[in-house]
Write a structure and sequence with these properties.
The chain has 186 residues and is α+β, with helices and mostly antiparallel strands. 30% of the residues lie in helices and 34% in strands. The chain is built from five helices and ten strands. 32% of the residues are buried.
């Protein structure tokens, strides 16, 4: 049984480049509150690849790492029902868990937040963020547009990206500094 803490449904808006490295932008489904999670370049590349392949309707001849994980779960009659961002450590690292089931048995599994979100994208399962996350991050507001230009450094989901003109550089940098002041990547 999933924990009783309060969670909000969030969606991955885009994978974006910042002057401090790649970041995932997540947005609360019920409000205009968004936040960034800094991730490693290779994780950003993998998530961007999944989004791009899905948008193009392309299936690779061999499975991606995430697809391989899904195939392994299927062999054991297990599934991931959702991904939860459970909190933030005092050092600024985001914490995540996969809500895994085998039959009716529940197996919460700790994961790096970038892996958890990558799996959520690949498996098309909900991403939930604890209220504590919204209490601890600096909320940022971005203008969402219908598309992102190829050269703007943004890998958006098919239904929208970010307008570079809408990014207030100083507030983004301040948010990144505040959220990841120790240089921790998730």
């Amino acid at each position: 049984m999933m924990p009783e803490e309060s969670y909000r449904l969030v969606r991955l808006v885009c994978v974006m480049n910042t002057n401090q490295g790649p970041a995932l932008m997540l947005s609360d489904e019920q409000s205009d509150q968004s936040f960034l999670i800094m991730i490693l370049v290779q994780d950003a590349d993998m998530i961007s690849q999944i989004l791009s392949l899905r948008e193009q309707g392309v299936t690779l001849p061999v499975p991606t790492t995430y697809e391989l994980f899904e195939l392994m779960l299927e062999k054991f009659d297990a599934r991931v029902s959702s991904v939860r961002i459970t909190g933030i450590t005092p050092e600024g690292r985001f914490c995540a868990e996969l809500d895994m089931y085998r039959g009716d048995d529940y197996y919460p599994t700790t994961a790096r937040v970038s892996d958890a979100i990558g799996l959520a994208v690949a498996f098309d399962v909900p991403i939930l963020a604890a209220e504590e996350v919204f209490d601890r991050v600096n909320i940022i507001r971005f203008e969402v547009i219908d598309h992102a230009e190829p050269d703007d450094g943004i890998a958006g989901l098919p239904d929208g990206g970010l307008s570079p003109a809408s990014l207030d550089g100083s507030s983004v940098l301040q948010t990144l500094d505040d959220a990841n002041r120790d240089g921790h990547l998730n």
